[in-house]
Recover the amino acids of this structure.
């Protein structure tokens, strides 16, 4: 019974990924291409504009995945990944600073549930927890940044944990975005494969961690 549930769950995950890919090739692709064209309209300043937009993204509540794919379309997988990592790290730092400036008294009164548990874990072993949470999507990206800002974690631990931890996922989105430019079915298939692989591995790790928690 447990095995059947596992097969069903992975089947649903794969179906969801396929639907998302199809969606990105139709409606989402149109939106992403518009964003890419707008970014590239700044010419030589395009990379700077892109990184600035990504940095303030948490304040705009704009979906990071769409912006990452647009980065891959605009700059290719390599430079798109570099610019996105810089921008995403900048956005995380901005959220961290905003949370820290707002004051811990607010958090102590209102921060409950997952936020409270996450905050406690961040205070115990800062760098490794941030690195883990960035690689394995247990919590929302911005929630981690705000929680870290409200905790006692050192800024350097948060910064480097974020910088290193977001690289695999960022590359996956940018590679997927850059593959749409080529239009080559083989390149797109490879990009989809890489995207699925880098999406499934964190889920496997997360499930393993949750199983250990249940056993304990």
């Amino acid at each position: 019974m447990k095995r059947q549930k596992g097969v069903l769950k992975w089947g649903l995950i794969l179906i969801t990924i396929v639907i998302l890919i199809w969606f990105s090739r139709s409606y989402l692709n149109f939106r992403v291409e518009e964003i890419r064209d707008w970014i590239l309209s700044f010419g030589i300043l395009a990379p700077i504009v892109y990184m600035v937009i990504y940095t303030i993204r948490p304040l705009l509540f704009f979906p990071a995945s769409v912006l990452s794919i647009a980065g891959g379309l605009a700059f290719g997988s390599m430079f798109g990944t570099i610019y996105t990592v810089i921008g995403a790290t900048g956005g995380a730092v901005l959220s961290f600073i905003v949370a820290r400036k707002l004051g811990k008294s607010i958090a102590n009164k209102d921060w409950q549930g997952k936020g409270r548990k996450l905050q406690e874990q961040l205070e115990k072993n800062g760098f490794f927890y941030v690195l883990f949470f960035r690689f394995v999507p247990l919590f929302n990206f911005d929630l981690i940044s705000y929680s870290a800002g409200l905790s006692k974690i050192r800024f350097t631990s948060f910064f480097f944990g974020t910088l290193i931890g977001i690289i695999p996922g960022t590359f996956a989105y940018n590679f997927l975005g850059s593959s749409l430019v080529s239009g080559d079915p083989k390149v797109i298939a490879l990009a989809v494969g890489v995207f699925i692989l880098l999406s499934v591995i964190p889920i496997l790790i997360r499930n393993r961690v949750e199983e250990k928690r249940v056993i304990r």
In short: The longest helix spans residues 64-102. Residues 17-215 form one domain.
